[in-house]
Amino acid sequence: EKGGWSSFMAKEISEQPDAVANTIRARIGDDGLVHVPELDGLDELFRGVSRVVIVACGTASYAGMVGKYAIEAWTRLPVEVALSHEFRYSDPVVDASTLVVSISQSGETMDTLMAVKYAAERGAKTLSICNTQGATIPRESDAVVYTHAGPEVAVASTKAFVAQVTALYLLGLHIANVRGSLTSEQITENAAELQAIPEKIGEVLAQHDEVAQLAHWMSDTRSVLFLGRNVGYPISLEGALKLKELAYIHAEGFAAGELKHGPIALIEPGQPVFVVVPSPRGSQTMHAKVVSNIQEIRARGARVIAIAEEGDVAVLPYADTVVRVPLAAPLFEPLLCVIPTQIFAMELASAKGLDVDQPRNLAKSVTVE
Ligand code: M6R
């Protein structure tokens, strides 16, 4: 069933435009407004909640972190992201005014299931984002928004991640519509941006060979760092996780602003560092700060691979390699910036002769706590 692909992971990476498009389908109306039919009947709940807690593990938790920025921006509800296992055993503050959103590709992750059950016992309303019809977590939840990524076989999550992030955007816009925290015009603008993403992912995928070549050149690398800020921060964590899982090398993601609070001590000549550069169209200040981070690490000999939007020339004097992503509204950039990190990890693992679909010690779905 791999078709002509060398691995399920390669196939699933290539399916990401469809994963996003299928998750959007039937949830943006002809009027351009977002309406998720599965959430019908929950208007009163969305108007009444005072906070949102997202629970998830691994890659799904990074999708949750991206979702936090978008949901807070659009609904002005405070959103917290908790690892399911940390949430469950930390006596968390949850009550009837808390909406607990779980995210799980498999819908069977025991840590997340236990967090959902616990939240329900405490009186919270539970909503799950899940890729597997009829799985345990959606069955235990008050409501479910399915992602339509299609079956994900490779242990390392790729297309499920972009579908989860898409579902969170839809959830945020749906709640904003119900609460009136965005105007109809703002909702239709954001919805149109989201609808344009699948084609843009296709443009990033077209750079597969350049990223693969980079990975092959770097196949004896022993450590890779990732920096990102704001919505780029969870992408730095996700890029690092992929590399650990697939290529078994040390990789760490940092919030770029943390650099001078410690991680910069790790920079020595030749250290590869991926930097997810935020769009200057979002915040010029943030962009300038990340460019200055790049200068700082470059001055210490880092080998900088920048993931930056087309036309961002500020990175050119300092980056050894620039991977371009098409222009998108800044909140949606994670759906584009994550792609090169997935390809890089897969290709580096392949260059080392490793099995990218079945990395050692890992299971596709973790059904024990
Ligand atoms: O099925 P789930 O989404 O609940 O799985 C959560 C994590 O175990 C999963 O995302 C894991 O981190 C992946 N192997 C990442 O590639």
From TrEMBL:
Its EC number is 2.6.1.16. The active site is at residue 364. The keyword Cytoplasm applies. It is found in: Cytoplasm. One of its GO terms (biological process) is protein N-linked glycosylation. The keyword Repeat applies. One of its GO terms (cellular component) is cytosol. Homodimer. Catalyzes the first step in hexosamine metabolism, converting fructose-6P into glucosamine-6P using glutamine as a nitrogen source. This is Glutamine--fructose-6-phosphate aminotransferase [isomerizing].
